[in-house]
Amino acid sequence: MIFRLRVVSVLAALLAVGLLAAPNPGLAVEVAIGEKATEKDAFLFSRLFHDATEFSVKMGPLPHYRAYKTDAATGAKTLLGFLFKTHEVEPDEWAYAGPIETLVGLTTAGTITEIRILYHREPFGSFSIDPPEFRTQFEGKSILAPFEIGEDVDAVSRATFTVDGAARAIKKGSRKIMQQYLAEQKKAKK
Amino acid sequence: MKVLLRSVFALVLAAAFMTTAAAQPAPTATEPSAAAASPQAPSLADLEALMEEDAAPDRPLDRREIMDLAGIAGFLALALISFWRKSTPLKYATMAVAIVYMGFMKGNLVSLVHIFGLVELSFPIFEYNMAWYALMIFTLASTVLWGRLYCGRICAFGALTQLMDRIIPSRFRYELPRSVDRKLIYAKYAMLFGAVGYFLITRDNFVYKYIEPFWMFTLSGTTVMWTLLALLLLTTVFIRNFYCRYLCSVGAGLGLISTLTVFGIKRWNQCKTCKLCDKTCEWGAIQGLKISKLECVRCDDCEILAADHKRCPHWLMLKKKQRKLAHLVHDV
Predict the structure, then answer these.
(1) Alpha carbons B178 and B284: distance in angstroms, whole number
(2) Which among A144, A149, A176 is the nearest to B42, CB-wise?
(3) Does the distance separating the beta carbons of B47 and A182 come in below 8 Å?
(4) Beta-carbon separation of A144 and B220 below 8 A
(5) pLDDT value at position A19?
(6) Is A13 an interface residue toward B (CB < 8 Å)?
(7) Which of residues 105-124 of A touch B (CB under 8 A)?
(8) Given an 8 Å threshold on Cβ–Cβ distance, is B54 in contact with A110?
(9) Could you tell me the pTM of the whole model?
(10) Torsion angle, CA of B284/B287/B293/B297, rounded to 10 degrees?
């Protein structure tokens, strides 16, 4: 009886400590809307949009950056697409052990240029989403594609939860950013 | 008979390794989808229709999810049947399925990572992880009801080391002296609290890789990890269930929960003096009348023995008494 009490109190104490420490994952320094991207991010941006000559500050309401190309001859600036981090747009899309923080490049035509996994805590991530095969399969993918594991996204057995979670966040995040852009354009036309 | 059993187990293990080697995900380069070629932006209406579909609360389960759920339901049913019927062949069948299906095919084991998740109250999304929730709920419920059933037959690694013990000739076996064993069993609690403490301070959940061998079912690890695993398995050859008994933090956690067990193992009065079960128990959980719930994994060995009318002293003494009584009646 005394032992049980001890066990229960230990479990309760553990839980209390966890709760106190709970609101945690503040891992990366997040840039506020209206500010410039960090140097590290900006480096990745140019990898996702090779042609871009300029990147915007962080924009809202759904946090994202915009990639522009300036024509050297005419000086005209065209919008190439958007860059966003899945956990900023879809923070509730978790895989196994938390959000899979992914940087996505998205063209104005609604296709993904490339993605980069920035951070995750997936126990089986090392062989499911970390290998380059995972990210290359999203290159040029339309955001209207089904994003079904085993169909148009490669299934990695033993880690379907992780792959599923990552693909879901990319799909939903991209669609939201695109929706925001299209709605903005519609409003501008009016 | 024993030789036959051993070779069967060896075959099962070999088959398990082979199926997983064959099932290795081949990295395939996927072609960009057809839609990528069209430069036209999707219309707002199309996009919103798709997004509505995504957000639909009554999303039907897809084929893969149904297969996963059916698989785990079937496996858990097999485990429960083997437990309720106290059937040794069925128990070994459960273990074989645990290694092949739960281990190598699905990588679905309760791990330190889940304890970390529990500690910080972060859980995967229910809608997409039902098979995982099924395993977790079963594990917690069965531990409260019967004890560390999970360790005994659901856990793929536990099943692996227990089957190893059946294959490896017993002459290799070395039993640790009781006094050492009694001290070493606390090491797993140190592992558990150490790991949870480390996690709470650093928030680094990848520490599991170095204090838990369950990643082996994914067949992907660093040289250091493989070396540690090899050492562990080598130790297991000589000291059976070494990891489960002395080092497993998940087992330690379940052991703490199992102190609340509702349906324990029934014992006879004679157990006080008889040492038969003490010697049978592979887990060193029995000392006379007392079975340590922290160590017991409900492997059925002592329960089968206690029900055996030909071997258990309880029944033998009962028979003797009955015979005496019959004699008396006859004499009168």
Answers:
(1) 8
(2) A144
(3) yes
(4) no
(5) 59
(6) no
(7) 108-111, 121, 123-124
(8) no
(9) 0.77
(10) 40
| Dihedral in degrees, nearest 10, Cα atoms B307, B308, B311, B314 | 40
Cβ contacts (< 8 Å) between A136 and chain B: which residues?
A: 29-30
Helix B249-258, helix A2-21: angle, nearest 10: 130
Residue B37, pLDDT score: 41
B189-221 burial string, b = 16+ CB within 10 Å, else e?
Answer: bebbeebbeebbeeeebebbbebbbbbbbbbbb
CA B214 to chain centroid? 11
Amino acid, single-letter form, for residue B220: S
Q: Say whether B107 and A178 touch across the interface (CB within 8 A).
A: no
Q: How far apart are CA B154 and CA B97, in angstroms?
A: 9
Of B36, B105, B260, the CB nearest to A141: B36
The reply to whether residue B51 touches residue A25, judged by beta carbons under 8 angstroms, is no
- Residue A26's pLDDT is 46
B148 in Cβ contact with B297 (< 8 Å): yes
Which residue in chain B is spatially nearest to A113 when comparing CA positions? Answer: B36
B157, B109 Cβ separation under 8 angstroms: yes
**ipTM strictly over 0.90?**
no
Give buried/exposed letters for A123-144 (b at 16+ CB in 10 A, else e): bbbbbbbbeebbbebbbbbbbb
The amino acid that residue A74 corresponds to is T
Closest CA to A94 of B119, B51, B128: B128
Q: Does B260 touch chain A (CB under 8 A)?
A: yes
The whole-angstrom separation of Cα A41 and Cα A21 is 28
Q: Which of residues 41-70 of A touch B (CB under 8 A)?
A: none
* Minimal C-alpha gap between A106 and chain B (Å): 11
DSSP reduced 3-state for B88 = helix
Among B36, B117, B219, beta carbon nearest to A142 = B36
Task: Answer left, alpha or beta for residue B33, where phi above 0 means left and psi between -120 and 50 means alpha.
Answer: beta
Tell me which amino acid residue B248 is. C
Q: Which residue of A has its CA nearest to B35?
A: A142
CA distance B100 to B145: 26
Q: Using an 8 Å CB-CB cutoff, list chain A residues near B29.
A: 133, 136-137
- At residue A172, the 3 state secondary structure works out as helix
* Rounded average pLDDT per 10-residue block, chain B, 332 residues: 59 57 46 44 85 78 86 96 94 96 89 87 82 93 95 95 92 90 93 91 83 87 91 94 94 93 89 89 89 92 91 91 88 74
